[in-house]
Amino acid sequence: MAVAPERPKIYEGSRVPSPVPTILEIPPGLRDSEDILEINFGPNHPSTHGVLRLVIELHGERVVGLRAVVGYLHTGFEKNMEQKSWWKAITYAPRIDYLAFQNNELVFVLAVEKMLGLEVPARATWMRMLLAELNRIHSHLVWLGTAALELGAISMFWYCFRERDRILDLFELVAGYRMHTRYFQVGGLAEDVPPGFWDECAKFVEVMPKAVDEYEALVNRNEIWLERTQGLGLLSADDAIALGQSGPVLRGSGVDWDLRRAEPYLAYDQVDFRVPVYQEGDVYARYRVRMEEMRESVRIVDQALRRMPGGPWIADDRKVVLPPREELHTSMESLIHHFKIVTEGFRVPEGEVYVAVESPRGELGCYLVSDGGPKPWRVKFRAPSFVALQATATAMSNALIADMIAIVGSLDTVMGEVDR
Q: Each residue of 97-128: pLDDT tens digit?
């Protein structure tokens, strides 16, 4: 009777390639071999989760060389934002990571508010947190559905997109758009929350934990799923830290670090939630982290629903915030303020700031420099997808080409964020 080889446990020491940490070099003994086959994987391949090109070198079915080639998306979002006013630049941030658009919008307005020294009403703070957690679930659902589809679990894709559609319905209900909502404004929210949102969101909170149970019932004990995820794509805690990893990739390697807990922002220090951490450092551990994060996000949304403060939903600073719409018909001063903010924008004091949030992919940072004018002098995002891509070579060490899809997918990169 054939016995399957035992899967490797987390390794000791370091597997980060040398001299270039992001490139897996062919071992010296194989470098001159005639059995090495170089192939292109991407950039137009559905399993690269975007226009990512992986140049891989094979010895049989084993990947012995790998380098990731980026730059095919040509977005240039950061430079575009530097040509727009602070007010108009908000629309660019969500498009950097189109699966975590609320979190990208959030980190930009938080950075601008910090430079302005602007205090945001409690209602806006709690609503931002609620929507950011819905956005986290949304992103993880897209990852889970597509990652499972690539490994043959076709049904999972449809189940995940069923719940994703419910979240997009909630975004549309509160903001008028399903994606790239521009609902977070400097100073608070674009509009108050419509009354119908609360009941619909409460229904989602009731349904979502049962949906996660269904996902786990499909694959947690499925032999094919376990064979394709356990013991593959190993990344130790030390290597994850050395490569600057964050989010589920870091926590799946056993490092308990979450900005919502370690450096609280919004109202995360006022809600109860658990940070899931797994020690195995493989594809399965990263899957488990994301599944449990969805459960914890539902808990946060539930607490935000029950404890949502009343009062204003945006700051009362007419030099930064648009006047109430009803005043435009009766007040010339309000009309002038509205016109100047939309056409010229507002000015931000000279200085620089860095603000970071815990996006679905990890630490999402926004670095801004102002020269005191109506436009950003410098915009720079710390994109967790770009950093996660740096771990590809380490995680692919000693892997088979058949496992590459699962390993690369488990890092959950979005190429709009990489090529920003």
A: 889 999 999 999 999 999 999 999 999 999 99
Asked if 150 contacts 216 with a C-beta cutoff of 8 angstroms, the reply is no
* Cα 108 to the center of its chain, rounded Å: 14
- Residue by residue, DSSP assigns 243-283 as TT--HHHHHTTT----HHHHS--TTGGGS-------SS-SH
Structure tokens at 416: 């709009």
Task: Give CA 311 to chain center in angstroms.
Answer: 30
The model's pLDDT over 220-249, given as tens digits with 9 standing for 90+, comes to 989 999 999 999 999 999 999 999 999 999
Sorted by sequence, the CB contacts under 8 Å of residue 266 that are 6+ apart come out as 125, 126, 128, 129, 132
Rounded CA separation 277/144 (Å): 18
User: Cα–Cα distance between 378 and 418 in angstroms, integer?
Assistant: 18
What is d(CA 394, CA 127) in angstroms, rounded to the nearest whole number?
A: 39
Cα separation, 265 vs 257, whole angstroms: 15
pTM for the structure as a whole: 0.92
Give the SS3 label for residue 410: helix
Residue 335: CA count within 13 A, CB half-sphere: 5
